[in-house]
Amino acid sequence: MKLSKFKFNLPQELIALHPAYNRDESRLMVLHKDTGEIEHRIFKDVIEYFDDKDVMVFNNTKVFPARLYGNKEKTGAEIEVFLLRELNREQRLWDVLVDPARKIRIGNKLYFGDDDLLVAEVIDNTTSRGRTLRFLFDGPYDEFKEALYSLGETPLPKFINREVEAEDAERFQTIFAKHEGAVAAPTAGMHFSRELMKRLEIKGINFAEITLHVGLGNFRDVDVEDLTKHRMDSEQIFINDKAVEIVNRAKEGKHKVCAVGTTVVRTLESSVSTMGTLKPFEGWTNKFLFPPYDFSIPDAMISNFHLPYSTLMMMVAAFGGYDKVMECYKLAIKEKYRFGTYGDAILII
Questions:
Q1: Which of 112, 191, 273, 347 could connect to 118 by a Cys-Cys bridge, CB 3.0–4.6 Å?
Q2: Record's GO cellular component, any one (predicted)?
Q3: Residues 273, 136: one domain?
Q4: Is residue 156 part of a domain?
Q5: Helix axes 322-334, 311-320, angle to 10 degrees
Q6: In degrees rounded to 5, what are phi and psi of residue 297?
């Protein structure tokens, strides 16, 4: 499968800059993968496609305010720092991306906030853009974390080309976000409202939760034509016994297992037993799913409409079938569906 097969012309105005007014009222395209039939619905109609004892699997990761703006010592140049992950709690070490990277060297100090609330020292170059920072903070860890997060802003992807607004702090999270560690939102889950969850529960749909801390690798450009040569960034995942039991019981009873989002699909497919069942797992995954691929765990999935050439779109194409998904994307553009993080959804069933 070649990268060039995922090229399409996406008009800029179809990239959603804001979420739908109500979470569950974005548009929903439904693809029946066996017949190729396509329907146009509203997201809350998703309930009509599931029955008693079917399972929906959600990613309960929580996004933290990962984007900071600081100034370089002496020159005062503004530097954007994107927190990727905490490396060492005691030493206040963080793996970060910096922009512009060319201005930052080992030993440089960066100052953040009024009265230089936080100071960080660059102690390592990990990649051309990546650095390791040590934050110089003498107080207790809780105070450090509070200071760090008070300076950070919601890490909207760059393709949402606008200033961060107050509503983003809430709308760039799912309502079931619990475990902090993501720098990007598991977008398919953002369509679920409390009212819709209640209605699904009353209908008898069971919920399972996994955790995948979404990293920036989702937005990294694929720069090889042969997709077998692309390497995904590793992301931390957790699948507990309870989720395993709910999913495997549904599969045993021939009920649907719906993965809510590409992150859930990747997590589920990263821990499959030889019998084709889900296994508990705690660790890292760099699984890259693209067509053709035989899925073991989910038989339905919900996703947003993704950007051209993205690994997220490739995974959707693997699940729904390349030709059918490309047809859906063509139709989505014609019907002016909204793309990206705050965009509309597709259910493949």
A1: 112
A2: cytoplasm
A3: no
A4: no
A5: 120
A6: -105, -65
Predicted pLDDT at 218: 67
| Rg over CA atoms, the chain | 21
Q: Check: CB of residue 69 under 8 Å from CB of residue 118.
A: no
Q: Are 261 and 59 in contact (CB under 8 A)?
A: yes
**Is 185 in the same domain as 285?**
yes
56 and 174: one domain? yes
Mark whether 29 and 178 lie in a shared domain. Answer: yes
User: What local confidence, expressed as pLDDT, does residue 127 receive?
Assistant: 64
Q: Decide the pairing of beta strands 257-260 and 300-304.
A: parallel
Establish if 160 belongs to a structural domain: no
Residue type, 18: H
State the pLDDT confidence band at 99, using cuts at 50, 70 and 90: confident
Tokens representing 91 are 């030493």
* Angstrom distance (rounded) from CA 65 to CA 74: 27
Residue 218 lies in a domain: yes
**In the chain, at which residue ranges do the beta strands (DSSP E only) sit?**
27-31, 38-42, 55-59, 61-63, 67-72, 78-88, 93-99, 109-112, 118-125, 130-136, 179-182, 206-212, 235-239, 257-260, 281-285, 300-304, 345-348
The dihedrals phi and psi of 56, each to the nearest 5 degrees, come to -115, 130
Asked, for residue 321, whether it belongs to a domain, the answer is: yes
* pTM score: 0.91
Same domain as 39, residue 11: yes
Alpha-carbon gap, residue 347 to 349, rounded angstroms: 6
